[in-house]
Write a structure and sequence with these properties.
CATH class of the largest domain in chain B: Alpha Beta
Largest sheet of chain A: 2 strands, antiparallel
CATH architecture of the largest domain in chain A: Orthogonal Bundle
CATH topology of the largest domain in chain B: D-Maltodextrin-Binding Protein, domain 2
Number of helices of chain B: 21
Number of strands of chain B: 11
CATH superfamily of the largest domain in chain B: Periplasmic binding protein-like II
CATH superfamily of the largest domain in chain A: MetI-like
Helix content of chain B: 40-55%
CATH topology of the largest domain in chain A: MetI-like fold
Strand content of chain A: under 5%
Oligomer: heterodimer
Number of domains of chain B: 2
Number of domains of chain A: 2
Largest sheet of chain B: 6 strands, mixed
Distance between the termini of chain B: 54 Å
Distance between the termini of chain A: 15 Å
Strand content of chain B: 5-15%
Structural class of chain A: mainly alpha
Helix content of chain A: 55-70%
CATH architecture of the largest domain in chain B: 3-Layer(aba) Sandwich
Shape of chain A: globular
Structural class of chain B: alpha/beta
Shape of chain B: globular
Chain lengths: ~300, ~450
């Protein structure tokens, strides 16, 4: 390992190669981030010159119940989306990794939602969820909504959004797990078979540990990604009923482009950026992902 | 292999920052658009006319521009912007107006939609122009011209049809049941009870889109307290939201919800995706409180229903109310305003003077089904595809002592979202009328 490490270091290209990436990052992420941070200390309606107003926006955010409510809703969505999507994607992915023809055919059908745009998906679901003429009118009575009022009730709306998002994103994560499961050496399963391990035990003791890194990757994408869910919710429930599904990004959008309070929206944007960054760093740290230990050690 | 975490950390924070890049990108572009300042051939200038993309309206606007360009050195150019609802256009307009090179002529909704621009000195004050040219001023219906005022002055010239809110009803269904459209609020409550007993939803309501709910509050407040109640709110007078007329209206709304005037599942029904309109057209709801566009909407989507069953009536009076029975609420019309940074304000003004009440433009609007806010149209409205409806709307606005602009268009932008979501909560009974008043009074 040491020898390989130093060889790697010696072969490292010069600092110049980093310039395009650094420029790209600087212009499209760094500068906007700094500008947003500056804007968060100003009052600006999009016209004329922003006027500095010190910590006003920040103290207003802290005392704004609507923002706290949206933060809570965002976190609820994050947790629910992870809980729903991870087991589904993991099981489907492992199943789809098999080489049989029926699996290949079915998998390619499962992956179809990947090809559709978010807006198209959300609009189709909105039509399905119409309580008088949509699918909601037909199946509502069987699932506790006699009048089809699914997106009009608090829990129904949350559930509907979680399901729509899962329908859209599970295929992507399935693809990740499928690829990873195919990388697991066959000899591990052969050895387990000889030891008399059942399918379920093989899954718990071989597949799951071998997929550790993929689980972390997929979880980071899901958790951080769920902080920015916006268009699905905007179209399916419009943040309703009342503000029961009003997530933080929609609150930011409304502050910026409906109320034209750019300074205030910038504070929410920074909170979102900080949350996303902190979350991904925490997951990477506590999952041991950063240590980059191979899953193939000892083989 | 050892020290990769740093670069990955940078990558991850980039992913986090990407979320806000979406917010900041328009700001960057706002700083950067100082393009060519429209100088055309032959000494004339080029002016940009920004409008909402609309298949029906854009060709009519283009015809007016072509007509004007024929005899003008300065040329106008139509720039339609696609939009969902109104948000795509208003966002783009805000960024354009904040840039050094704003559009010259601006399509808008009057009052609240332009008040920031008016206060910032970005629009041309048309008071003196209108005062010095009485013929021009008198060519528009006064209530509509006044409804577009911002900051107490005229900044906009009416440029398309009027859109007051009406009670639409299914006349075939009413006839079958021997009922009449409600003349008073008590009639309305009677109809709610009656239709519920027949398992027909009394009113269709597109609750999800938020603004349809507002029509109920606007009309009830107008009938109970008269136009001054909202004028006080608009003027920002302390305690204006707490006016007894507002509280009374909100209580009546909750009472209507309790009486199932909107059915039980209105919280899932939208307007923009034809949820409420379909409910009404299929005969599952008896009435629909909506702007005049509901008529063309039904003609478009459910032509049979529009032809055979669709009829319309004014909002009922409320006994003991101070409001005039003829007053209306809704969207008076759309307006054109002129940017004060325009390279040729005189040409832009000349365009509005020549075309907006001009015979060619008005005729085209009428033929497209619009009812323009231009005076003396009675005889010409026979050319409308729906002459009966057009004449009704025209007379309704003409005899209206006041035309209150939709609150969400009239109030400054920061009120829109609280107004929409708090009123939704009142309908859902998650907020009491008193809490609504308190929450709206706290908006800054």
């Amino acid at each position: 390992m040491t020898a390989a490490g130093s060889a790697d270091r010696a072969a490292r290209p010069g600092a110049l190669w980093i310039v395009p990436a650094a420029l790209f990052f600087g212009v499209f992420a760094g500068v906007p981030l700094v500008l947003t941070a500056v804007l968060s200390f100003t009052s600006w309606n999009g016209l004329g010159t922003p006027a500095f107003n010190g910590l006003d926006n920040w103290s207003r955010v802290l005392s704004d119940d609507a923002v706290w409510e949206s933060l809570r809703i965002s976190l609820v969505f994050m947790v629910l989306c992870w809980l729903v999507q991870t087991p589904l994607a993991l099981l489907l992915g492992v199943w789809a990794a098999g080489r049989e023809l029926n699996r290949a055919v079915l998998s390619s059908i499962f992956f179809l939602p990947l090809l559709m745009s978010t807006a198209a998906i959300a609009i189709s679901w909105r039509v399905l969820l119409d309580p008088n003429f949509g699918l909601a009118a037909t199946i509502g009575p069987y699932i506790g909504f006699p009048d089809g009022n699914i997106v009009g009730s608090q829990h129904g709306a949350v559930a509907a959004v979680v399901i729509v998002i899962a329908w859209q994103f599970v295929p992507f994560h399935t693809l990740l797990y499928q690829g990873a499961a195919r990388q697991i050496p066959q000899m591990l399963y052969d050895a387990a078979l000889i030891d008399g391990a059942s399918r379920v035990r093989q899954f718990w003791h071989i597949t799951l540990p071998q997929l550790r890194h993929t689980i972390v990757t997929s979880s980071v994408l899901m958790l951080v990604g769920s902080l920015t869910y916006f268009e699905t919710i905007l179209i399916v429930t419009n943040g309703g009923p009342g503000s029961a599904t009003m997530v933080l990004p929609q609150r930011m959008y409304l502050s910026a482009f409906q109320s034209f309070q750019m300074g205030y929206a910038s504070v929410i944007a920074l909170v979102l950026a900080a949350l996303g960054t902190a979350l991904s760093l925490l997951i990477v740290r506590f999952s041991g992902f950063a240590k980059m230990r191979s899953t193939l050690e000892g083989i | 292999m050892g020290d990769t975490p740093l670069s990955r950390r940078t990558f991850l924070s980039a992913a986090g920052a990407a979320g806000i890049a979406g917010l900041a990108a328009p700001l960057l572009s706002a700083c950067g658009t100082s393009g060519p300042a429209g100088r055309g051939k032959g000494g004339g200038k080029n002016l940009q006319v920004w409008v909402l993309q609309d298949e029906g309206q854009n060709p009519i606007q283009q015809a007016a521009i072509d007509d004007f360009n024929k005899s003008s050195a300065t040329k106008l150019k139509l720039v339609p912007t696609a939009s969902s609802g109104s948000s795509g256009y208003t966002d783009k307009l805000r960024i354009g107006m904040g840039s050094p090179n704003p559009p010259d002529l601006i399509f808008n909704w009057g009052t609240g939609s332009i008040v920031d621009y008016a206060k910032g000195g970005l629009l041309v004050d048309l008071d003196s122009q209108l005062a010095s040219d009485a013929t021009w001023k008198n060519s528009f219906l006064p209530s509509v011209l006044d409804a577009g005022k911002a900051d107490g002055k005229y900044y906009g010239i009416p440029m398309r049809g009027m859109q007051p809110v009406l009670v639409f009803y299914n006349k075939t269904m009413f006839a079958e049941h021997g009922q009449k459209p409600p003349a008073t609020y008590d009639d309305l409550l009677g109809l709610v009870t009656y239709f519920n007993s027949k398992k027909i939803q009394p009113f269709a309501l597109g609750h999800v889109d938020a603004w349809p709910n507002l029509m109920w509050l606007e009309y009830l407040v107008e009938r109970i307290g008269g136009p001054s109640v909202f004028q006080d709110i608009l003027a920002g007078k302390p305690g204006a939201w707490g006016n007894p007329a507002v509280l009374d209206s909100l209580r009546r709304i909750q009472d209507l919800v309790d009486r199932r005037a909107f059915g039980t599942n209105f919280a899932s029904v939208n307007y923009v995706n034809d949820g409420a309109g379909l409910l009404f057209a299929k005969g599952r709801a008896a009435m629909h409180l909506m702007g005049t566009w509901e008529y063309s909407n039904q003609v478009d989507k459910h032509p049979d229903f529009a032809k055979k069953d669709l009829s319309f009536a004014p909002f009922p009076t409320v006994s003991g109310g101070k409001g005039d029975a003829n007053s209306v609420v809704g969207n008076p019309t759309n307006y054109f305003s002129i940017s004060s940074k325009s390279a040729d304000v005189a040409a832009a003004t000349a365009f509005l003077k020549k075309e907006m009440a001009g015979p060619m433009y008005v005729d085209k609007l009428i033929k497209a089904g619009d009812v323009p806010a231009v005076s003396g149209l009675e005889s010409r409205l026979s050319d409308s595809p729906n002459p009966e409806f057009a004449k009704y709307v025209y007379q309704m606005v003409q005899k209206a002592p006041s035309f209150t602009l939709s609150w969400d268009q009239a109030l400054p932008h920061q009120f829109t979202d609280p107004l929409h979501s708090n009123l939704q909560k009142v309908f859902l009974k998650k907020m009491t009328p008193e809490q609504f008043v308190q929450a709206m009074g706290a908006v800054k």
